[in-house]
Every structure is written in structure tokens, then in C-alpha cells.
Design a protein that fits this description.
The chain is of the alpha+beta class and about 110 residues long. It has one domain: Alpha-Beta Plaits, CATH 3.30.70.1070. About 25% of the residues lie in helices and about 35% in strands. It has a 5-stranded mixed beta sheet with strand order 1-3-4-2-5. The longest helix has 13 residues. The N and C termini lie far apart (about 25 Å). The relative contact order is 0.30.
Length: about 110
């Protein structure tokens, strides 16, 4: 089962108190979880990494986060889940997608 969506969902995430949304998505994603695959300093690099997942109709989330002492970073994640357990269940169902990739489950704040 894939989580399908044809667009790139770019939202704000939080590891510090200063955050900016790349695109306004409202508060509906706050508190949800995503499976983070990449964190880079370049928005363009994040979007380039995300493109194959977008083309395959996965929900792709790019979080722009201000990391203390490091500046702005862009985090690429797959899926939006209501709980950490839902994200873990998805990881189990889609083992092939995540095989050989490092990832973590991240909450959008």
C-alpha cells in the first residue's frame, strides 16, 4: 500500500523556536509524523532528492527547520501519519522502499 499524492507537500517543522513555512499548508500537519530520509542545507538538493518519490506518487514532505548552531536545513520525509505507531506500521508494510536507507520518524511541530 502506497500513500499517494501527486504533489510535493512542503511544511514547517520544528527543532527550535524559529521556523518558517515554505508554503502555507495550515495547521493540519502539525503533530503528524513523517519518515525522514534526508536532511540537507540546500532546498534545491532536497527537492531533487524528493522528485523520484513524487513521480512514484508518494506523499513527500520537506520540512524547513532552523537548527541551532547549524542554520536552516531541509528534511525530506515520506508520508504523513497521525501517530508514531502508524509510521512504524507503514515502515513494516513498505520494507522494500526503505531497504538500505537510513531513516527516522519525525514529528511536525
Amino acid at each position: 500500500m502506497k500513500i499517494k499524492n501527486s504533489k510535493l507537500d512542503i511544511v514547517s517543522s520544528s527543532v527550535s523556536t524559529k521556523e518558517e513555512s515554505l508554503f502555507e499548508t495550515g495547521d493540519s500537519n502539525v503533530g503528524k509524523f513523517t519518515i525522514q530520509l534526508l536532511s540537507v542545507e540546500s532546498k534545491e538538493e532536497a527537492e531533487e532528492y524528493a522528485e523520484p518519490f513524487v513521480a512514484a506518487s508518494y506523499v513527500v514532505v520537506i520540512n524547513k527547520a532552523s537548527v541551532p548552531g547549524k542554520g536552516i536545513w531541509y528534511r525530506v520525509g515520506i508520508g504523513l501519519f497521525d501517530s508514531q505507531n502508524e509510521a512504524k506500521d507503514y515502515l513494516e508494510k513498505e520494507k522494500q522502499l526503505f531497504r538500505g536507507k537510513k531513516y527516522l520518524i519525525n514529528q511536525i511541530k
